[in-house]
Write a structure and sequence with these properties.
Layout lengths: L8 H80 L6 H19 L4
């Protein structure tokens, strides 16, 4: 009669060892995935932080340029307004300007009427 053979202890040890290696490799892979996930989270946080820093710097620079532009514009407008105010004032002719104007009017009148000088 054939009796079922007893399990081979050497085969069981090899199977157990192989299963233990697979389980260990799986744990290591899971740990590696978790470390990689954490690194990705840190990298994303660092990238967001850098983006915020660049955005804030850009906003500061834009505000500074805008303020400089507004100051320059205010200066130019003040100069234009000062020129306009000066031009709005009547110009009182001096004696020499009145004499030159009188001569020019007299010469033009003679030319238009054909009267000799």
């Amino acid at each position: 009669m054939n009796r079922p053979s007893a399990p081979d202890p050497a085969g069981n040890d090899a199977s157990r060892s192989a299963i233990a290696r697979v389980l260990q490799a799986e744990r290591e892979a899971t740990e590696s995935i978790e470390r990689t996930r954490q690194e990705a989270v840190h990298m994303a946080e660092a990238a967001r932080s850098e983006a915020r820093r660049l955005n804030e710097r850009t906003e500061r620079r834009i505000r500074a340029l805008q303020a400089a532009f507004e100051r320059e514009l205010a200066c130019r407008l003040a100069a234009i307004e000062a020129d306009a105010a000066a031009l709005a004032q009547p110009h009182v002719l001096r004696e020499d300007e009145l004499a030159a104007l009188d001569q020019a009017v007299h010469a033009l009148a003679q030319e238009l009427t054909g009267t000799p000088t």
